[in-house]
Amino acid sequence: MDELQRKAIIDHWDRLVEELPGQDMIDYLVADRIIDHEEAINIDILPNEKERNIELIQHLLASRSIHTYPLFVKALKSINDVSSKSLLELIEDRHHRLQQKKELELSKRSMDHLIQDRLTDGYFGSILLAPSLDSDDLPELPSHPVVREKLAKDLVKALFSLRDKNGWIVIRGSEGSGKTVVANLAVRDERTITDNFPAGFIWFKIGCTDINELLIKVQEFYLILNHNEKPPPSTIETVIESIRLLIADQYYGMLLILDDVRDGKILEYFDLPCTKLVTTRVSAISFQTTNYRINLSTEDGYTNSEAEKAFSAWFENDLTSITSDASSITEELKCAPMAIALIGGNILHDDIQFQNQFKMNGSSLENGYATKSVKSAKVEKIKFALGKAFDTVDVELASKLRQLVTFQKCPKIPLNPLNVLWQLNDGQVENIMNQLAKQSLVLITKKRRDNQLPIYELHDIVMNYLVEKSTNLMEMHQSLIRQYEDKFNGDWLAIMDDEYMRDHFIYHLLQAKEYDKVMSILTNLECLEVKLRATLISRVLNDFLQCRSILSKENWEAISQYYQFVICNGNIYNINPQQSIIQMALSKLGWPDIYDKAEKLAKRYCQESLYFKWSNNHQYDVTDQSISSTEIHNDRITCCRFSHDGSKIVSCCDGGEIKVWDSLSSAVLISINCGHSDRITHCCFSPNDKLIATSSWDHSVKIWDVYTGKIVFKYESHLFAVNWCEFSMDGEKIVSCSADKLIKIWDSRTGKDLVICRGHSGGVLQCRFSKDDRKVVSCSSDESLKMWDTSNGKLIFSCRCPHRVSACSFFDDCNKLMCICRNTVCMWNAHNGSSLGQFYCSGEITASAVSLDSKFFALCVYNVFKKKDISLQVWDNKKKKLISIYYGHSNNIYSVQFSPNDQTIVTASYDKTIKIWHRNKKKLNRAVQVKNNLPSLELYECKFIENCLVVYAVHDEKNRLKMYAGTDKEFKLISKYSTFGHRITAICISNNGKQVAIGFSEAGGVQLLSANDIKNCLWHVKGNLCEMTCITLIKFSSNDNNLIVKDGNRQLFVLSSTGAVLFKSGKNHGDITGCAIFPTGQRVLGCYDESFKIWHCYDVSQVVTVRAHNDIIAHFDISYDENMLATLSFDKIVKIWDCTTGSQLASLDHYSSVNTCKFSINCQFLATCCVDGSVKMWNVRSGRLRYRFRGHTTQVLNCYFMQDDRILLTVGDSLAWWQIEDEELIQRFPLYGNASMAYYADDMKSLATTDDKGYFYFLSQIVPKNEAPRRLSFDRRLSFDRRISFDRRISFDKKKESCIIC
Length: 1302
Description:
Layout: H1 3-10, H2 13-19, H3 22-31, H4 37-44, H5 49-62, H6 68-79, H7 82-107, H8 111-118, H9 149-161, E1 168-172, H10 179-187, H11 190-196, E2 201-207, H12 211-225, H13 236-250, E3 255-261, H14 266-269, E4 275-280, E5 293-297, H15 304-312, H16 324-332, H17 337-349, H18 351-357, H19 362-369, H20 374-392, H21 395-403, E6 413-414, H22 415-422, H23 426-438, E7 443-446, E8 454-457, H24 460-469, H25 473-487, H26 492-497, H27 499-511, H28 515-522, H29 525-534, H30 537-548, H31 553-575, H32 581-586, H33 592-605, E9 612-614, E10 620-622, E11 628-630, E12 637-642, E13 648-653, E14 658-662, E15 668-672, E16 680-685, E17 691-696, E18 701-705, E19 711-715, E20 722-727, E21 733-738, E22 742-747, E23 753-758, E24 764-769, E25 775-780, E26 784-789, E27 795-800, E28 805-811, E29 816-821, E30 824-829, E31 835-840, E32 844-850, E33 856-863, E34 869-876, E35 881-887, E36 893-898, E37 904-909, E38 914-918, E39 930-932, E40 936-937, E41 939-945, E42 948-955, E43 960-966, E44 971-977, E45 984-989, E46 995-1000, E47 1006-1010, ...
Parallel strand pairs: 1-4, 1-5, 2-3, 3-4
Antiparallel strand pairs: 6-8, 7-8, 9-71, 10-39, 11-38, 12-13, 13-14, 14-15, 16-17, 17-18, 18-19, 20-21, 21-22, 22-23, 24-25, 25-26, 26-27, 28-29, 29-30, 30-31, 32-33, 33-34, 34-35, 36-37, 37-38, 40-72, 41-42, 42-43, 43-44, 45-46, 46-47, 47-48, 49-50, 50-51, 51-52, 53-54, 54-55, 55-56, 57-58, 58-59, ...
């Protein structure tokens, strides 16, 4: 919404507050996504219409979306009542008049007048900031900025001309040429920004940024635009796409300033729907932008008059005070504004010393730079001025200045680390930095938040000069670390709480070569938690990545599992920054070292917080032994290949997408979304890693530039699908093969065919160059392997294979050949084609590779006889022996390759993941994908009986009923029974644990068994005697006196403890969507589509019938006092009813679907679990929202009140405990899947649940040694969910759910 639209609404504020149809307006705006569900609820709970209208209007005025006003107008039109029509006419008329007025004002001002206004005296010296999204990032101006009038005029013209075109303005100039100052001055003018860029501007300093640092910058960009409301996505591509949508929706007409760009590839990420202003010292960047582009240059330097004005600005325009020596130096340095600023500061600082230091004539300066290039000469002039500036600084001040080299990686230096480094207070530090600022050696930025604390910044040239002159850089870093350790008594957690050290502690330790401390911190879960909670996860990962190139191989392996742990679980912290890393480690499989550390910490802190460990996690085997797992494609991945230096990986997929990414951090470097129009079959790097070749089913081979992602050449000589392509060793040729039965060798630059090999009778699947490029080997579906001469295309020899040959390769220095035929590896002599033998794998080989030293084969195997048995196998070439096998992929692997150093292996699979494996490690327990080796159960029921978990389960293959029981220390099979005449379809354990009720299919009826001996049947109600067929549900009443039974014939039965039929509903009521027996066992509830009925068990005539909803009743709950019933439906409405009269007590509207509802123990509140991941708690009497809990990443499926309604447990993608009164998260236990139920022991020591991926969780509370666990009192009925019998959408479906029990 722009200013004119806001003003049109504000001008009619009173009428809108009184007459706006608020509720209708909210419904329309929610539907159009201008207001989200939570905001609508916050407005709804206000006490009267007037307050609701005020809140609604304020929300609309605060919106930045360009769609807000049009949709507001559209809503007024749609409501279509007299009041809305009147308001619409008033607002539209006012807006039209305001537009006419502005257009008239603009028409009176020509472009020349506009520019002239901008160049009036004092304009660029103004310190009034224009509307900015984050003005704290705007760098401070030098002490005496002077306008470069020609460049300033050109910049204003450029800004004006590109204001609506989303183009680029590039200011190019060497170091210290003043390009940043010119851009800085331009955005400080309020009129320039408000007239041209109403959404404001954002300033980003880019500098020397690698891909990981760039990710951090764009994530911070996202947070600024999103006002820190949502966590940023984890990859550059997804962050940029989110930024693009935000700008288009809320910040249309924004100016983005990218300062000091040094890599043109970065501009591709910032090709956003806004005007971009770029400053750079790289000439080529001027031509790497797209769309509208205006190039400006500072290379011409100051004119004589500008130089004189710049120099004299230091003396308040008193030119007579400038010495003749200084004037001559100004003449020499006039093209370097920064040099003039440095010299001017020194003249002002000490004129006499200046004259003594600069006793040289112009010719000496000229001779000194005569042999240098223009660019280097300018840099040398600035260095010359810097050297003289240092000479004029007193010794103590110069010492302080040299110590600033410690902050080389931190462009903005806060006050606090300087206090610590110099052991001075704030005032003393500010005094020192002010003196340096007066001599143009540092810049000072006063932050407009955080109590006006200053931020200091050094120009790159100054910092580089300090680095060049520094001889004891390591000692400086060590000094800073010692000072921090002394201040915080060596407490790393306290040091990490310091905002600066949180982001830079690891950097300083690495520079100080304190590697032991680095490893200790990065493997300290508490330190990781401090940083994960306070900053972006990408910053944590960047700490690890800094170590990769510095630490030894052994040290890196020691910390790499923590790096992988953070990567694998980072999504949890992205959504829930307050997640306890201790509890998260206790909830994950495959990280034994981290688990052990977490358990020790949990025992130390368990008196302060609640911790649970997964007691039965040893029953699950880790099957993913990869050291890295990446999901960067949204389609099946067909190929992946290392670059020749091992730093990058190229991958491609079925959908035609190509990506180049960092092999260590998985950061995407280049993404080509529509590389081919059909499936890409292969991809590879050129020998110099500058090009990529890809082949496809679209009959083409394309060559791409690695750095720009642009196509270099397209080869379309094949008639059918191209299956493979590969560069020659010199990179000048490419060999490709196709379903057209041909192998073609062609020039990689021109695409000219050099040699065509003919001879295969079937499609050619692979072809490979030998190391000397003289031969090519190929394999085909015609069951042959052929060798070709690359000079003339003649066949050298052909080998007959037993089956279709899917892959081939040279090995042993090109003296031997290897090919794959289904499950067979065949080897041949590369000189004459004679057979060298073969060996077999346990399944079909889908991909293969040979290590560079030819010692190992990597084979990807799929065993068709064992479901999901997909593995990577490494074989010893000499012994023909399987030496290691790795699991982790969930679908077939179709690409594999050894890294250039043969230490790792990369695989790509149809499961859309790329994994990297360590060849020398047979059991790397760093995984998130696990499988169980325990029997799967089709149907089960579990309960805690006197703190012992009892599980009755049915194995689907033999219809055997098994009983398991035990505690977290020992849990085992107790008994089993399999002589039932019918298939078991329902199980229920009595609340006292003494009986088990079993329901059967067909006419098998219901049996009640003794829990002590399941072979002992207490009674059996046969289905044919009471027209009971196919039991689908059984539930005991709270006192265990009665059972409610639902059958497949749409009937409800109530059976007594002796098996007598007390109640039968009949078949004429409709489809049963849910049923329950009241806690006392006196009444029965049945839900039929949109209605519910309540019967008295002993008097069928006493019935309450209510049509409750306009859609099917999906779930319900009965209050503990049996007076109220809550029902919810697909219509997103929850209603509360009087159980005696059937009258409606309250209606609770939701803006998202609701899964379940639960009454509190005291019956004062109702909790509703929503699909949007939230739980809302309503006051039953008033129907008003009282509390809201958000912490789940997906829908919440259930909740439980406990500890006298002080604690709420929510169940979904995790188990989360909440303090109700404070709405605070106490603890969160992440799950691998989604759970819908939870079962507790009475003493809260143990908990059991299962998720939809089949994992069974037996959790036990961690308590101090020799101490009893803290008791959380709650109602047993609630924890076991005994009152709720059936939930059509989300209740625990005993027919489909599976669970693994030891």
